[in-house]
Amino acid sequence: MAFLTTGMRYRALSVTSKGPVDLAASGFSAVWGKTSPFFFLVKPLKERNVLVTWEDRERYRRDQHDDSDEEDEDRSQPSSQSSTSSALYSSPSYTSSTVTSPPSSQSMSSMSSSSSIISQLRVAAMAVPSQRYARQNYSTGGRLAPVPIGQATSVANTIHVKSFFRDAVAVARKISDVGLMDYIEAIHASDILEEDPTSHPAWDMSNPHSVLHVYDSRIYPGCLNRTYYFLDFLYKPLGQVIRELNNVLGVPYTDYANLVRCTRLCEGCNNHFSFYGYNDHIKEGVCSNHPDLKQVKKIDIDTLIPEFRFRSFWNDKRPKKVGETIDQPIGAAMMEWNSRIGVPADVWSVISTAIVHCTDCDLTRSFPAHLLHLTNNSCTNPGQEPFPNSPQ
User: Fold this and answer.
1) Given phi > 0 = left and psi -120 to 50 = alpha, else beta, which region is 54?
2) CA distance 61 to 58
3) How far apart are CA 187 and CA 88, in angstroms?
4) Is 224 within 8 Å of 337 (Cβ atoms)?
5) Among 120, 162, 242, 271, which one has the highest count of C-beta atoms within 10 angstroms of its own C-beta?
6) CB-CB contact of 383 with 362 (8 Å)
7) pTM (predicted TM-score)
8) Residues 111 and 184 in one domain
9) Which of 376, 216, 387 has the alpha carbon at shortest distance from 308?
10) Are residues 206 and 84 in contact, defined by beta-carbon separation less than 8 angstroms?
């Protein structure tokens, strides 16, 4: 099979095959057993709107308003197609809040459309996996040593280290999408991101950006096994910040800012790591995440790790709503950043800015966690108790 991909869209094309092809696992209801050639079309996805300037966004909003007026005239006619919603899609493997009311027909339509998008992405991933996707086996029941899958390139006769990633994966992880990184930097520097988080490429988890696909268990089932295997530093203070950032609890903004400062770029593999993950991926004085095995030095973590405050509670009042999104792509990528695996530079650019500071409770959360902590689009969190000597 073969699929053509262009960024966030898929080009419709015919796919031929001779012999039995099992499509049931890919979301198709039938299993083809014909020996004659067959073809099917992959529907193109809706192109993402990139709104950089305020003028672009105002023009887009006016166009959307005009379109909605035209649709109101035709609402008496039933439509067989549903539009893609920007609301967060929840699958059984994701943590979600308790449903207190029956879903509306609009939300059901959005979920169906979102499911269709994810199914198409999963089919494409099965046919043409991402070059960054490492086919490694991890046991969920015990701590088995990871199997080295790269060729050893000796820097010196005394070094016996093998690359953690095979050549193709290591090269793909070393090359980043500069255009994506420049766009995120532009909307962040111009305060567009703060005013409108939906302008961020990672806002819509019903149609995740391509750099996050390898962290999405809906697209690559079992990809979290590797993530969960390397949790050595999740229970340190920095790991706790990651957990609460991807939770309805949230963290003070200063904790989020300190987390961002705890990143380290490796010159050998060009990946970002937390201070802990950076030191852990260095074996015998070389970067073990790339076949070149470039010599790098460890850092003194004790002098670099900042002090985290964590959130407090007004009169010990706890949030009524509970739940975390650590197993969603943004949270999973953050956990790998805080491990010997690390993340490519463009992934770090995405996840380190995919946050919202809620002005009602004065706490910061990742995009999915922010949406999860809302009730009817309103914050009901008791909020952050002011720190000593802070303005009331």
Assistant:
1) alpha
2) 5
3) 22
4) no
5) 271
6) yes
7) 0.64
8) no
9) 387
10) yes
pLDDT digits (tens, 9 = 90+) for 335-348: 999 999 999 999 99
What pLDDT score was predicted for residue 56? Answer: 62
Residue 91: inside a domain, yes or no? no
Are residues 123 and 223 both part of a single domain?
A: no
What b/e readout covers 244-270, taking b as 16+ CB neighbours within 10 angstroms?
A: bbbbbbbbbeebbebbeebbbebebbb
Closest by alpha carbon to 208, among 323, 83, 109, 333? 333
Structure tokens at 331: 């949270």
Residues 365 and 245: their CA atoms lie apart, in Å, by 5
Query: How many domains are contained in the chain?
Result: 2
Question: Is residue 365 within 8 Å of 355, Cβ to Cβ?
Answer: yes
Q: What is the DSSP letter of 385?
A: P
Q: Give the strand pairing for 374-375 and 378-379.
A: antiparallel
Among 228, 216, 268, smallest CA distance to 88 is for: 216
Contact 358, 381 (CB under 8 A): yes
* 204 shares a domain with 262: yes
DSSP-based helix, strand, coil % in the chain, nearest 5? 35, 10, 55
DSSP letter string, 289-331: TSTT--B-----GGGT---------GGGPPPS---B-TTSHHH
* Pair (172, 275) in one structural domain: yes
Q: For residue 23, is it within any domain?
A: yes
Alpha-carbon distance values, 101 to 104, 105, 375 (Å): 9, 12, 12
Q: Is residue 239 pLDDT above 90, yes or no?
A: yes
Instruction: Spell out the residues 6+ positions from residue 258 whose beta carbon is closer than 8 angstroms to its own.
Output: 241, 306, 307, 308
Does residue 67 come out as left (phi exceeding 0), alpha (psi in the -120 to 50 range) or beta?
alpha
CA 285, CA 154: separation in Å to the nearest integer? 12
81 part of a folded domain: no
What is the band of 137 on the pLDDT scale with cuts at 50, 70, 90? low
Query: Residue 43 belongs to what domain range?
Result: 1-53+105-128
Q: Report residue 70 as tokens.
A: 């035209």
Q: How confident is the model at residue 5 (pLDDT cuts 50, 70, 90)?
A: very low
Element (H, E) at 285: none
Q: Are 213 and 120 in a shared domain?
A: no
**How many residues appear in the chain?**
392
Backbone angles phi, psi at 84, to 5 degrees: -75, 125
